[in-house]
Amino acid sequence: MTLDNLDPRSSALLVIDLQNAFIHDKGTLGISGVDTQRLSSIVPVLAELIPRCQAAGIPVIWTVQEHFAVDASRARKKLAGHTSRRKQVSALAGSWDEEIVEELKPLAAVNPAYVIRKHRFGAFYETRLEMMLKMLGTRTLFVAGTTTNACVETSIREAYLRDYDVVALDDCISGVNGEWEETAKNVWKQYFCEISDSKEMGAWIDAQSAPRTLGFGHMLLMVQDVPRSVSFYVDQLGFSIRPAKPLADGRPFTAFHQGVAVVGGRAPSHRQIDHIAFEVNDVRALRDKLKKSDVEFQQDLHDGPYGLTIYVTDPDGTRVELYQVGATA
Question: Domain 213-324: which CATH class?
Fold first, then answer.
């Protein structure tokens, strides 16, 4: 698959249950006879990938499974649950078993607010994850963790049913049984998600982090009669006026939600386009690139109404505004 059509600004990495209980040979699964070397094989891969995500501004969200020694809800069940098949109840609250493995613990500590406690398989079930993703503006979830056929699969299904774009990172997911994993991933590809890996995600992060244009911002049209033009766009075309800061040079100006704005000052012989604006991801790096290419600058780095801004001229003389939201001079 290709990740090119995904946006890192609306993506997050979900790391599921990288805890001693499931990864360490002295944890619950290890003392219950499970091959923890197989489970822990993803730790070095994640130790490399997670800092790359954090450096790129991609939120890394962790789940920590937590259980109580006495669980009144499970006690009502008539049939034995999966916990009865282990030497002990895994990941008891406050125990070493519950803790994130030592190799990854410092990475989880980078942002403690991104650690989600859960009491069942699913990362969404009765947790604050969904609200957090809404607050972060997340639409794509890259999924990693353990175990493939339980917590990881449940969380992937939950994410898909909430209409997230889901990407499972093959070399960052581990389980207790290879045959189960193969079957599970075939089902995932058919119904719930795309399958990628840390190498492809890393290359995508590098490509998306390079200085580039993110999207169309607005177009400013120079007009002879602002009220007449505003009437045309509002009354005839159904545009709606949006609040906007006045222009620094004091010219009469009206902006629309539809991405166009009009400004006075056009003479009959003038071009109508005053300038076109685009949002970029790294205006300083893009500025340096344009300088090296001898692109004509009309205005160098400055604090514009939308963020750190430059104005350049395209080959046909059109003024182009390039701005980075949140950045300042």
Answer: alpha beta
